[in-house]
C-alpha cells in the first residue's frame, strides 16, 4: 500500500424492539465506521466498525468523535495507520482501525481473514438464540419463535424483572425441553449483589442452567471468587474483562477469581489481537470461552464471525445480533436453524451508511 487516507462516518442503528437488560433499555445505538483508502487505488475501501455500549465500554463517549477525528487527521497527515494514539483508552476505536486495515489489505471485500468455509458459504457457525427481557408472555413468545427455528442454545437476560418472572420463563422452557435438548445460558449483567446472588443462583439452578454471565458487578474479585466456589451454576466473566489491558493484570484477575468460563467481546477488549491474548491466558489456566458480539452492525458482526471461523471455535457463539436493527447494513449474513451463515448469493449494500 502507498499513502493511506482516512475518514469516519457515523450511523445510528434503530432497534426493531427495545432491548432491555438489567442496566438499561436501548432503543437506538450509535456506531462509527473508519474508512481507509490507498492513494494508489481510492476505489477500494477498507471499512472497520467502532462499536461501544454506553455504560459498559471504557471509551470516553464525551470526546469520542473528536478522538476519531484526531486519529483520521493523524493518518491523513502521516499517510499510514501506524500512528501514535491512546488506543488503551478507546478499545472500540482500536478494533475499528484493525478491522479497516485488514479489509483494505484484502481488497475491500469485507474479507478480514483468509477465505474460510464460512466465507464461502459452506459451513455455518453455531450460535445461541438471544432472548431480551420483557414480560413473561412476550419473553415466552420470543423463546417459542427461536425454538421453532431449531435453536439448541438460548441466552436469556435476567435480573431486571422480578425473580418470580424469570423463574416462570425458565420453568416454561424446561416443561418442554430437557437440558440435553436445549441449553440455557443466562446473563445477569451484574444485577445481583454479593449478599443475595447465591440464593438467587440456587433457585435458578433448579432449571438445569448451563451458565450465567456476570451475576454481580465487575471489580469485586474476592466476592466473585467466593460466589464461584459456592454457586450451583457455572459462572462466566464478561464485564470483568473490560478495561484490563496489562497481560499480568489479566492473568492475576483470572487466577484470583477462577471462573468456569470467560466471554470474549472484541469491540470492548480492543480487537482481535488483544482478544487472542485473553484466550492464550485462559488456555494456560484451562478456562474455556466463547465469543459474543457487542451490538455491532453487520459490518462488525461479519468480521467477528470470520475470526471465529478462522479460530475454529465449536461451542455455540453469541453472534445472533444481526437482526436487531431496522436499518442495519444489508449483507450476506443470514441466520438459519441456529447457525450464522454467509450467503454468497447476497451482496453487501452500504447505502444506509452513506459512504
Mean residue pLDDT: 94
Q: Spans of 5+ residues with little confidence (pLDDT < 50)?
A: none
Kindly provide the radius of gyration, computed on alpha-carbon positions and rounded to a whole number of angstroms. Answer: 20 Å
CATH architecture grouping of the largest domain: Alpha-Beta Barrel
**Total tally of structural domains:** 2
Structural class based on helices, strands and sheet pairing = alpha/beta
The biggest sheet amounts to: 7 strands, parallel
Q: According to CATH, what is the class of the largest domain?
A: Alpha Beta
Instruction: Please tally the β strands and state the result.
Output: 13
Strand order of the largest sheet: 5-6-7-8-9-10-11
Global outline = globular
Q: How much of the sequence is in beta strands? A: 15-25%
Indicate the percent of residues in helices: 25-40%
Distance between the termini: 21 Å
If you consult CATH, what is the topology of the largest domain? TIM Barrel
Number of helices: 10
Amino acid at each position: 500500500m502507498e499513502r493511506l487516507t482516512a475518514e469516519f462516518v457515523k450511523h445510528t442503528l434503530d432497534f426493531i424492539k427495545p432491548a432491555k437488560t438489567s442496566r438499561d433499555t436501548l432503543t437506538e445505538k450509535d456506531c462509527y465506521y473508519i474508512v481507509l483508502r490507498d492513494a494508489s487505488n481510492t476505489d477500494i475501501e477498507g471499512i472497520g466498525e467502532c462499536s461501544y455500549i454506553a455504560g459498559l465500554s471504557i471509551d470516553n463517549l464525551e470526546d469520542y468523535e473528536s478522538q476519531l477525528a484526531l486519529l483520521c487527521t493523524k493518518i491523513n497527515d502521516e499517510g499510514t495507520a501506524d500512528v501514535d494514539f491512546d488506543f488503551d483508552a478507546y478499545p472500540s476505536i482500536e478494533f475499528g482501525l484493525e478491522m479497516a486495515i485488514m479489509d483494505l489489505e484484502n481488497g475491500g471485500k469485507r474479507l478480514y481473514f483468509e477465505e474460510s468455509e464460512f466465507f464461502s458459504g459452506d459451513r455455518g457457525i453455531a450460535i445461541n438464540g438471544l432472548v431480551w427481557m420483557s414480560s413473561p408472555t412476550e419473553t415466552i413468545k420470543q423463546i417459542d419463535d427461536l425454538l421453532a427455528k431449531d435453536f439448541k442454545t438460548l441466552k436469556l437476560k435476567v435480573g431486571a424483572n422480578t425473580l418470580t418472572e424469570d423463574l416462570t420463563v425458565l420453568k416454561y422452557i424446561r416443561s418442554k425441553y430437557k437440558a440435553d435438548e436445549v441449553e440455557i445460558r443466562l446473563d445477569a449483567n451484574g444485577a445481583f449483589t454479593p449478599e443475595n446472588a447465591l440464593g438467587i443462583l440456587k433457585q435458578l439452578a433448579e432449571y438445569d442452567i448451563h451458565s450465567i454471565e456476570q451475576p454481580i458487578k465487575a471489580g469485586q474479585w474476592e466476592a466473585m471468587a467466593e460466589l464461584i466456589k459456592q454457586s450451583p451454576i457455572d459462572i462466566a466473566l464478561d464485564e470483568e474483562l473490560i478495561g484490563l489491558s496489562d497481560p499480568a493484570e489479566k492473568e492475576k484477575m483470572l487466577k484470583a477469581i477462577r471462573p468456569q468460563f470467560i466471554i470474549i467481546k472484541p469491540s470492548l477488549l480492543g480487537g482481535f489481537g488483544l482478544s487472542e491474548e485473553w484466550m492464550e491466558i485462559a488456555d494456560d489456566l484451562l478456562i474455556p470461552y466463547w465469543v459474543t458480539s457487542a451490538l455491532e452492525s453487520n459490518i462488525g458482526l461479519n468480521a467477528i464471525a470470520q475470526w471465529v471461523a478462522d479460530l475454529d471455535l465449536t461451542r455455540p457463539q453469541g453472534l445472533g445480533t444481526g437482526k436487531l436493527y431496522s436499518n442495519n447494513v444489508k449483507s450476506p449474513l443470514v441466520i438459519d436453524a441456529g447457525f450464522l451463515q454467509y450467503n454468497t448469493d447476497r451482496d453487501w449494500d452500504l447505502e444506509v451508511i452513506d459512504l
